[in-house]
Amino acid sequence: MQTQENFLTAAEAIVFDIDYRKKITDSIANYETAFEKGLQQFSNLELARERAAFIKWKVLENLDKYLIEFEASVMRRGGKVIWAHDIETAQNEIGQIINRTHAKSVVKSKTMVGEEIGLNDFLRKKGVVVHETDLGEFIVDQANEPPFHIVTPAMHKSRSDIARLLNEKIGSSLDADAAEMSDDVRKELRDKFVKADIGITGANFLIADSGMVAITENEGNARLSFSFPKTHIVIAGIEKVIPTINDLDLFFPLLASYGTGQKLTTYNSIVGPKNIDDDGSVGEFIVMLIDNGRSNLLAQGEQRQALGCIKCGACLNVCPVFKNIGGHTYGTVYTGPIGAVTTPHTNGMNEFKHLSYASPLCGKCTDVCPVKIDLHNHLSRNRRDSVASGTAKSGEKIMWFTWKKMMLGRKTLNKGTSIKNFMLKQFFKTSWGERREFPKLSEKSFNQSWRERFGQ
Questions:
Q1: What is the pTM of this model?
Q2: What are the pLDDT digits (tens) for 240-261?
Q3: How deeply is 434 buried, as exposed, middle or buried, from its count of CB atoms within 10 A (0-12, 13-18, 19+)?
């Protein structure tokens, strides 16, 4: 498949780029130090993870009930809820809001769902000025790149890389340190919040019983994005719902510790429909619930557990594949182990089954998941499902048919080594890789050697 070929080509280029990999390694090393400290706030971490996993399981098993409850709660407070089955529907609905409000500018906080539905490109094609307000998102947007990581979008860029970029785009000094660059971006964006017609945010959690939206961040840009504009649009996947506001007592600290190694992120907002403003007008609060393939994953009896992900990014940081090839190589919005589990079901098994094979199944991702998603086994199940769905190529089917015949017959296994070595080279040469010496089979099988030695 073309997608798989692109993946392999990009991966090969990255793994031999030493400077690029060093940037990733250094960023992850800093995260690991903070992560270990962050976990110390839990007196019983395993119990917290089990509680979080149970709540997410309960929600996914009753997702329709909780979504309807959330919708009713939002409407009761005076807000609006829009259901979007796919990307086209989501874009059309947002387009209608833009046309109705005559919006010319939008401030947007960090949202992976926004990346998922191609929000920036869509709005800019409509002539709307879009300002990314999260520092990391601002950087990659100025570089015309997608986010590299779920939590830290600009993980792949060094301080000097960012300094050069900001010098070119907003005139920041090439010698600026991290604090100075942050100040420069803050000054660049400050008046954009006040002048924006619409604020668009994501959601960390949707609270079913109150119709409120929980947003956690470290910069305060999300809070500014929904405070000043008259219209606040929340875009969120249908899996973001949690039963009650009391559950945040568990999920906020877990997300902070596993995402950035903090006890709690700096800004934690619980927002809903706006009150009457000083000028007598009422702000508009709209929540867009996006499916976009999530129902396909929900239909899977086992892998549906992956919808419980709270997007902390911890599994990416421990994954040896992600550490070596980076986020852009995947060619998808959600990368690393969680992306490899979910994307084949949400975007198509035939096009993205290869992601489930981009893993050693070492289990590190499962061990670190705060909501105990069985990630490495889900990757194995995806491989099983891809074969069962008939997506395997003809050559692959022939190879495994031949292997099965050989394994089931002792006489076949004991046949000449030259034939076996020839078949291995024919079928496995490409997948084994050009840079590794191909293994050679022993002249005699273990069975033959045993019989010759012991006569049995």
A1: 0.90
A2: 999 999 999 999 999 999 999 9
A3: exposed
